[in-house]
Each structure stands twice: as C-alpha cells, then as structure tokens.
Amino acid sequence: MAEEKQAKSIDQATLEMLAKASEEGISTAFERAEKMKPCPIGADGSCCKNCAMGPCRIPLAKGKQETPEEHAKRVGVCGATAETVAARNFVRMIAAGSASHGDHGRRVVEAFKLMAEGKTKDFEIKDEQKLLKLALDLGVEIGNRSNNEIALDIAKICEKEFGKQEGELIFIKNAPLKRQEIWRKLGVVPRGIDREIVELMHRTHMGVDQDYKNLMLQGTKAALADGWGGSMISTEIQDCMFGTPTPTLSEINLGVLKEDHVNIIVHGHEPALAEMLAVETQDPELINYARSKGAKGLQLVGMCCTANEVMMRHGVPIGGNYLQQELAIITGAVEAMVVDVQCIMQGLQEVARCFHTKLIATDNRSKITGAEYMAFDEHQPRESAKAIIRAAIDNYPNRAASKVRIPKVKTPLIAGFSHETINYLLGGLFRASYRPLNDNIINGRIRGLAGVVGCNNARTTHDSAHVLMIKELLKNDVLVLSTGCAAMAAAKVGLMVPEAAKEFCGPGLAEVCETVGIPPVLHMGACIDNSRILIAATAVVKDGGLGDDISDLPAAGAAPEWMSEKAIAIGQYFVASGVYTVFGTTWPTTGSKEFTEYLFEGMEEMYGGKWAFEPDPVKAAQLMIAHIDKKRKALGIDKARERVLYDMAMRRELEG
Questions:
Q1: What sign results for the dihedral spanned by CA atoms 82, 97, 582, 267?
Q2: Which of 217, 242, 267 is the last residue in one of the domains?
Q3: What string of H, E and C letters represents the secondary structure of 408-462?
Q4: pLDDT digits 0-9 by tens, 80-125
Q5: Is 255 in the same domain as 335?
Q6: Is residue 64 pLDDT above 80, yes or no?
Q7: Can you give the pLDDT at residue 2?
C-alpha cells in the first residue's frame, strides 16, 4: 500500500498560498521538505563530524536488540562511543541555542546602555515601575537619581553577566530557594553566560569530554545561562525600554495584508528595529509619501517572534509564524520583508526574486546573498527606520496587480499576558497576587498548567500538533501558557479570545476564564520570553499551597513542532528547572539508548524534571496530564474536598 501523503498544514491561508506557489512554480520549505528526506543517521544523533577523521557514522540497527559486544564495536575512529557522540551532538545544540538567546540579550543591553548614556535620543524608558523594581532587585541605588542614571547602572551590571568568569549569574536568585539549592549541590549554577557556552564548545571538541553525564552537567549550565541569564535579561530590559506588555487586541494570519497599502513585514527576533518601524509607520509624513506613490496607506505586519514583540506592545497585526514567511511574499502584496536575526530562511531571496518584494537585511551578523543590506544603526534608529520605510514605499509602484492574491483569512486575538499582567488580572491593583490561580488549582477547577511553546517544522503538518495538543489540554481543565510560533498557531484557530473558554475548555477552566475574562491560552511573548513562564511558575510557588519548588507544581511543558537548536536549549533549562518536558516530531539522541534513557529517566532524580518524546500530540498531552495528576496526588489535592460551612462554635474551636 502506498504511504499516505501527509497534509502540509491545517491553516487555510497557508494552503491557499501553497497552491499559488505550485501554480507559479515557486519552491517553498514545504516542497523542499517533501523532496529532501532527513538523514536517518544524523536524525538519531549517530553521526560525528567534529574532526577530519570523520564523519563517523555509528547507527543503531533498527528493530534489533544490540548485544554488549556489538555496542562496544559501535564507535568512531577515535573510539568515541554512541553515548559520547549523541551527547556531544545534543549539548552542541544547547550551546548554539543558548548563544543565540545570549547574543540577543547582549544587543538589547547595548541599546539600553546607549539610551542611558544619551547616545541615542530615539529610545526611552517606557515602564518606570519595572525599571525601579529591577533596580531594587539588582541593588542599584534609586534616591533622587534620574531614570537614565539608574538605567546606566543596570546596563553595566547586566553587561558584566555575559563575560563574568566566576560567581553566579544574578538572576539565578529569581528561582525558588529550593531550586537554587539543587543547582548548587549539582554544581550547575552558571558563572557567566559566554563562559559556559565557550566551555561547552571546548568540551565537545575531539578528544576532550568523553563522559555523557559530565557533558550534560555543562550542557545544563549553558542552558540555565540562557533561561535564567540571557533570555531573562533580554525580557526584563526590553520591558523597561519598550514597555511591559498588557492585554492587546490584534489580528493574525496572511489576511491582515492590505491590497491597497504599502505592506512592510518585519521578521526576526530582536525588537529594537521593529519598535522603531512600528513608531515610524505612523508618521503622517511617511503615510502621505505612500499616498503620493498611489497607495491608500502604510502598514507594518509582523512575522515570527518579532511579530509577537510588536503585537504585544503596539497591536501590530501578525502575518504568520515561521513556515509562513515565504508565503507572505507569495501573496504578491509585500513591498519589503525586513529581517534581522534568527529563523530567517535563505529561500526568502529566491521567492522575492519572483515578485517585486525587496528582501532587506539589517544586521551585519545575518547577511543574505542577493538581499539588499540596510544597516540598522542603534545610534540613529529613527533615521534607519525611515530609510527602510521609504525604500519600501518607493517599491510600491513596481507591484504587479495580476500577481496579488491575499487569502481572506485572519483571526482576532488578545495577547500581552506578562507575569505582571497576570498578577494584576488575578488580584487587582492593590492586591496583585497569584492566590486566585493557586486556589483554583487546589480546588480542582484548574487541573494544572502547561507551557506549549516552540517552532514549526516542515517535517510535520504545519500548526496541527500545537492545536491538537492544546485542545486536549484545555478540555481537561489545563490552563495553557504559550509563546513563539506555538502561540500563533493557537491564535489562528481562535484559542486566544475569552469566548474560546466556553467552546474548548472543561467546565472548571471555563468557569475561571469566564470569571476573570481571559482566554484559556495566554500569549506570553516571543521565544526569548519563555523566561516569563519561569517567573510565573516561581510566583506560583512563592504564593504557597503548591509545594516549595517548581518541580512540585502540577505543571508540564511541551514543544510539539520544534526544529531549532534554541528549542533544545529552552527544553533543557525547563527540565533543569524541574519541569516535565515533552517534545514531538523527532528526537536527536535515539542512536544511543543509554544516553536517551538518562535524559528521559535519570534527569528526574537530579532535577525533578525530565525529557520525554511523543510525536502524537494528543498522546503527548495525555502524558502531560498524567504527570500533572501525579503532582496533584503528591500535593494531596487530587481529591475534591467536602465543602464545610462553619458555624460560630466551630470557628471558636479553630481560633482556640
């Protein structure tokens, strides 16, 4: 029987644009994934190319029970075992993922410092309250000092976190005390962000660290340097400088593009460029300039994680998630795709050549052959943004009307659920607290919490795993926190509006969502903002009644469509923070049974969290629910308690 062909997407706009691409003979990631089968040896983590004696391929025979003698012979030229090869490959993914978030955080701190020093006039402190709180946390004097003076001290402290050679990262102290003790006992508290990544890369060089457990200790250090270091620094500083997100109404999907407007798409991860584009596209002078070229107006649209950032703060509509970037250009209605770093497909330039679209690279760390390069200067961000916008407007007359086809598909969403916002929504202005959330977990209306995050992967049906997993969790009364492309998938099917609670949730979760007026899936930001989930989990612990560590919580995490090295780094810092974490699609260590068992079982003994792999998203959700139920039982909240109405005599007895 012929193998059943996998659906490319569950999203109608995506399918429409894939049909248009096929009609016009345009190659996309979907088509390339179909033609380019993954290497089975590399996918299992059984290929080592860390020296010129290789690449060495040491695959595990499928469906065969390996004897100890056979296992001993399965080594590379240097004698590296399957466990060493798989562990080196795995932790190198952690190193690259942590480096990407760390470098993002460094750029944010650099822009923050320029602002504080008065070297750029176009950025300013948007959230003074968060600035002052951050100052108190970092031991920065406030007194009668100006915001910029305080900000400069904060910038200098955060700047040192990247190159620090000894001690502990400052934001580690944001974790529950018990979690900090676990990390110190295991010796995995990061010293400096860059130091841990450099040491990890050294250890994976040929002939250095050859013990998979020791490699994972350093891998954990690098991952924690991401989640409780680079990512957390980035999120905190971005909130001070650009504003802490609050609930914002917007729209998502390719249908947000306007046929009679100049459409500029901003795509990438670092928000400084996107922030300035969001401001400058509202400039009446530039809007009039667009009209002088025949357009009715000027519109900025977000793509991928930058989209999450500017949507949460400005309501800028989202064109789509990772796998929709090429399809946005295929609409024929995009004057400029403006990119910075991370998740930018090189295939964008080939697609842009088929249309009038300008692909504009803005960061010298991420140039693309054939793309136009217009550097974003953080000393003069406003002028840089204006130049990019003018280039897009000048391109509008080159649009071919016959090539324009915009899918009439878009969905409303409410995003911007930062830790601070959730705190306020649950407790009010004067009694901001997670207590109502904890109480509703304890009384069983909310079964538990799930973080569903991560990328899209062209090896699986676009958006499907995210949506199936989230719906299974919701109907079982699990409140979902989401970031990145996973959040966009949920939004596109209507899960990020309060009305979704009645349709998709179990009765307990629906009651809570309707009472508070929140969606059942809370959009918490871009992938770098997964640190918000860590802070929220810590706040739940601190509020009491659900244990004294993140590992005690009835909570789990998942990335059902992951594809990037950042996802592995994120997953490891959640596991090391005590969270049961399930990945889908594929798993990169199956070439080593022993190392895989260590990740899936052995880590729980050390950290209270562990990895799991389940490609079926509904089964994966059920694994998460089973884990949540196990934690509820351990806390003694697995059974409904009889409601007792106390009379005066009973109350006196309690007081006595």
A1: negative
A2: 242
A3: CCCEEEEECCCHHHHHHHHHCCCCCCCHHHHHHHHCCCCCEEEEECCCCCCCCCE
A4: 999 999 999 999 999 999 999 999 999 999 999 999 999 998 999 9
A5: yes
A6: no
A7: 41
- Same domain? For 585 and 439 the reply is yes
In this prediction the pTM is 0.94
Q: How many whole angstroms separate alpha carbon 320 and alpha carbon 603?
A: 36
pLDDT on residue 645: 60
pLDDT 10s digits, 571-630: 999 999 999 999 999 999 999 999 999 999 999 999 999 999 999 999 999 999 999 999
Q: 283 and 220, same structural domain?
A: no
**Is residue 179 located within the same domain as residue 264?**
no
Closest CA to 612 of 591, 583, 586: 583
**3-state SS, residue 303:** strand
Preceding peptide of 55 cis, ω within 30°:
yes
Let me know whether 257 and 308 are in one domain: yes
pLDDT in tens, 13-46: 999 999 999 999 999 999 999 999 999 999 999 9
Measuring CA to CA, which residue among 349, 353, 355, 347 is closest to residue 263?
355
Q: Is 263 helix (H, G, I), strand (E, B) or coil?
A: strand
pLDDT at 652: 62
Select from 363, 337, 370 the least CA-distant residue to 267.
337
Residues 320 and 217 reside in one and the same domain? no
SS3 of 456-513: the string is: CCCCCCECHHHHHHHHHHHHCCEEEEECHHHHHHHHHCCCCCCCHHHHHCCHHHHHHH
Angle, helices 271-280/381-395, rounded to nearest 10 degrees = 60
CATH number of the domain encompassing residue 375? 3.40.50.2030
Give 493-511 pLDDT, tens digit per residue: 999 999 999 999 999 999 9
